[in-house]
Design a protein that fits this description.
176 residues, alpha+beta, binds carboxymethyldethia coenzyme *A
Amino acid sequence: MMLRKETLKKDKAKQLFSFRYALLTSFAYLCTKYVYILIFIIMKISHIEHLGIAVQSIEESLPFFTDVLGLECYATEVVEDQKVKTAFLKCGEVKLELLEPTSPESTIQKWLDKGNKGVHHVAFCIEDGVANALAEVDGKGVRLIDQAPRKGAEGLNIAFLHPKSTAGVLTELCEH
Ligand code: CMX
């Protein structure tokens, strides 16, 4: 009789131990997950804002986009500090930004001179701010071209990331 009671007591203690163990491991798992989310918080990209397309002449390239693809060119703008003239077309939610150099010193002219043409950069629309996104990618070791957001075409806050640390795609972060 005494032995049976003793065994029952031991079983109960074992059950309590495994229950507490399960509770503790679940708690530890949730904590780890929460801390992981906090540390590795990832920027929110809503969509591709635009594709930058380098052309030698907007006048010569535009008819393909308007007359063949049927897209509407809704704005042109000269961005002095980037030494480019831009033409914007809308394609659903995404824009195409044609970029024509306005000076031999323009990064676009230099890129064209190396024999490149076509898609020059991809711009992502950041929901929670370019400054936050820059701090985040900087922390992850990505090489920044712009250390802080600056004004780009259409008055957007923008910043570029170097193609050497973005899988070869010149990447622009922007916010409305
Ligand atoms: N896409 C992918 N790679 C590119 C690139 C592009 N658009 N432009 C340059 N590179 C590569 C080059 O091929 C080169 O690679 P290799 O060394 O393997 O040949 C490397 O980048 C050169 O890098 P760098 O010597 O640091 O710089 P560059 O003088 O060639 O300038 C860059 C390149 C990206 C830093 C410069 O173009 C820049 O600052 N761009 C951001 C601003 C910009 O593009 N403005 C124009 C658009 C403005 C607007 O949208 O309004």
